[in-house]
């Protein structure tokens, strides 16, 4: 007996979401997120994905749209052909592969993270609160508001203003929150080697656990040298992973921690492969978003739930948006995201009536 592949429907719907206020980083300011919801259906089972291009991190909005439209043109030949059409465009590939995976996990009546991981149950993943590059007073207020809401890990954006101002922000936040609150900073490549080395002294004395992407993405040797300096602060690579890939980072011994943004890497499946590899190499991992709508954020929560011993992850970015694509199935409690246990992503009613 031969089994025929079911007919698959593929649709996209554009969206635009404003941030509550501009999110300033050393790589630019984000005010709006534009992207596409992606819907696949076959045999009466739906899957939802989100393609959220962010210039500088992924293809442009127009390139993402074109790739998704190409995928629609070939969907009658099957999902493999559609995935091939988005191969070169990571945000589009993330959206389409997520919709396919959500449908598959929904059909199997399993939460998406179990389908990505070893199948065991994971209740929560630790998260960080994210504080943009703001004034001293606003930074301290955002930090204490976050800890008041239960966050036990804070990530501050640095690198867009004067170094001394950033270091003062770090010192003041350290003084304002409990000793056991983990602090991190993310410079988005905004520091020179000398600035980063100078910063490490204050960061260490303020108990900062992770310095993310201090130097430009290309500077693998510089990151290695920072790791070898005598400071007890982990060096994480984010943009560096996207530019060089895992092999080069490992060969250069450039990172203690690697940041996975599934929407910039081309999808949960691509990120999941990196997890296996990096875990074998004993490199720590955390998962973040590019400040996306609820579909991509929830997908990142499922990915984090499939990462063994994942470090606190940048998944609590929904509050940075003024509105969302639908109801958020993820609750944050005591510094952790409660992982949805419903089938698939655990997101219902987002597309509305067909
Ligand atoms: O990791 C987090 O805490 C949240 C996401 C985040 O910081 C980012 C989202 C989008 C663009 C980037 O500047 C930034 C990052 O570099 O990690
Ligand atoms: Mg980063």
From TrEMBL:
Enzyme Commission code: 4.2.1.113
UniProt-listed SMART domains: MR_MLE (SM00922)
UniProt enzyme class: lyase
Boundaries of every Mandelate racemase/muconate lactonizing enzyme C-terminal domain copy: 136-232
Pathway annotation from the record: Quinol/quinone metabolism; menaquinone biosynthesis; Quinol/quinone metabolism; 1,4-dihydroxy-2-naphthoate biosynthesis; 1,4-dihydroxy-2-naphthoate from chorismate: step 4/7
Recorded GO MF terms: magnesium ion binding; O-succinylbenzoate synthase activity
Cofactor(s) named in the record: a divalent metal cation
Gene3D superfamilies, sorted: Enolase-like C-terminal domain (3.20.20.120), Enolase-like, N-terminal domain (3.30.390.10)
UniProt catalytic activity: (1R,6R)-6-hydroxy-2-succinyl-cyclohexa-2,4-diene-1-carboxylate = 2-succinylbenzoate + H2O
Sequence intervals crossing the membrane: none
Keyword Lyase: yes
Family named by the database record: Belongs to the mandelate racemase/muconate lactonizing enzyme family. MenC type 1 subfamily.
Function: Converts 2-succinyl-6-hydroxy-2,4-cyclohexadiene-1-carboxylate (SHCHC) to 2-succinylbenzoate (OSB).
Protein name: o-succinylbenzoate synthase
Species for this entry: Natronosalvus hydrolyticus
């Amino acid at each position: 007996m031969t089994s025929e592949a079911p007919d698959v429907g593929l649709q996209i719907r554009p969206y635009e979401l404003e941030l509550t206020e501009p999110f300033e980083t050393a790589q630019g300011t984000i005010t709006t997120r534009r992207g596409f919801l992606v819907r696949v259906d076959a045999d009466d089972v739906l899957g939802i994905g989100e393609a959220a291009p962010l210039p500088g991190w992924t293809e442009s909005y127009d390139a993402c749209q074109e790739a998704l439209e190409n995928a629609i043109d070939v969907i009658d030949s099957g999902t493999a052909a559609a995935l091939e059409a988005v191969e070169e465009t990571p945000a589009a590939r993330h959206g389409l592969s997520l919709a396919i995976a959500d449908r598959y996990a929904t059909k199997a009546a399993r939460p998406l993270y179990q389908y990505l991981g070893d199948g065991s149950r994971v209740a929560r993943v630790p998260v960080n609160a994210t504080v943009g590059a703001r004034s001293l007073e606003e930074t301290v207020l955002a930090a204490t508001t976050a800890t008041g809401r239960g966050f036990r890990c804070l990530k501050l954006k640095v690198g867009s203003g004067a170094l001394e101002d950033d270091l003062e922000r770090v010192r003041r936040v350290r003084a304002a929150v409990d000793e056991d609150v983990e602090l991190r900073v993310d410079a988005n490549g905004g520091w020179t080697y000398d600035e980063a080395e100078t910063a490490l002294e204050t960061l260490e004395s303020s108990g900062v656990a992770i310095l993310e992407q201090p130097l430009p993405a290309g500077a693998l040797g510089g990151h290695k040298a920072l790791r070898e300096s005598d400071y007890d602060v982990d060096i994480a690579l984010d943009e560096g992973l996207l530019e060089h890939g895992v092999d080069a980072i490992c060969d250069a011994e450039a990172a203690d921690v690697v940041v996975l943004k599934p929407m910039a890497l081309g999808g949960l499946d691509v990120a999941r492969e990196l997890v296996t590899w990096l875990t074998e190499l004993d490199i720590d991992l955390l998962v973040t978003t590019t400040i996306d709508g609820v579909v991509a954020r929830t997908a990142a929560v499922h990915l984090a739930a499939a990462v063994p011993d994942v470090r606190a992850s940048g998944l609590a970015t929904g509050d940075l948006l003024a509105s969302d694509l639908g109801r958020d199935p993820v609750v944050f409690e005591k510094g952790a995201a409660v992982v949805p246990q419903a089938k698939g992503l655990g997101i219902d009613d987002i597309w509305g009536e067909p």
